[in-house]
Amino acid sequence: MTFFDVVKQRHSIRAYSEATVPEDKLNRVLEAANAAPSAGNLQAYEIYVVTNARQRSALASAAHDQFFVAGAPVVLVFCAHAARAAQRYGRRGERLYAVQDATIACTFAMLAATAEGLATVWVGAFNDEATGLAIGTPPGVVPVAVLPLGYANERPDLPGRRGLDDLVHRLR
User: Fold this and answer.
1) Which helix (H) or strand (E) holds 109?
2) What residues contact residue 24 under an 8 Å CB cut-off, 6+ apart?
3) Sign of the C-alpha dihedral, residues 32, 45, 74, 17?
4) Are 47 and 78 in contact (CB under 8 A)?
5) Strand segments (E) across 17-136
6) Residue 157 has what pLDDT?
7) In what order do the strands lie in the sheet with 45-50?
8) Region at 74 (left for phi over 0; alpha for psi -120 to 50; beta for the rest)
9) Domain 3-153, what fold?
10) Are 111 and 7 in contact (CB under 8 A)?
């Protein structure tokens, strides 16, 4: 699959089969996340890999009862580690760059998952504290995105997208 095929094939999946994600595919997804650019190459984020059913269920509850989260065999939780960015960039690094680093890494993971024939959905609606408790984050490490990962058990229609004429503003 070319990069542009991956981008076109990626879409949000909220129903997963019970099939296990092979470790080699999961590792390639994690390696792609690790290759994501970050401010000052500080990688001010952490990735939690959750396969335990009880913890996945706790994450689903923390995500305002989005129970499809627990249905995925793997859930990745991307967290901002503000202190890593603050050491070089101060307050802006702490409040913005760490969050950007985590979200870019999550995006790379989503695209890599698609290239591996896996499905994901970005979950941003969750209770930070409950999510952190479910995965045992230390102080200063804040969940930013929850990414269920597995094989799709649905094939929803792709939603329409805004046209470039509406979305892009060219300054000349």
Assistant:
1) helix 98-115
2) none
3) negative
4) yes
5) 45-50, 74-81, 119-120
6) 81
7) 45-50, 74-81, 141-150, 119-120
8) beta
9) NADH Oxidase (3.40.109)
10) yes
- 137-150 burial: b if 16+ Cβ within 10 Å, else e: beeebbbbbbbbbb
pLDDT of residue 1: 86
Helix (H, G, I), strand (E, B) or coil at 154: coil
Backbone torsions φ then ψ of 150, nearest 5 degrees: 175, -165
Instruction: For residue 48, report the phi and psi dihedrals to the nearest 5 degrees.
Output: -105, 125
DSSP codes of every residue in 15-49: -B-SPPPPHHHHHHHHHHHHTS--GGG---EEEEE
Please report, as a single letter, which amino acid is at residue 119.
Answer: A
User: Which helix (H) or strand (E) is 9 found in, with range?
Assistant: helix 3-9
For the stretch 84-136, pLDDT in tens is 999 999 999 999 999 999 999 999 999 999 999 999 999 999 999 999 999 99
Please indicate, yes or no, whether the overall pTM of this predicted structure exceeds 0.90. Answer: yes
Secondary structure (3-state) at 75 = strand
SS3 103: helix
**In whole angstroms, what is the distance from residue 85 CA to residue 96 CA?**
9
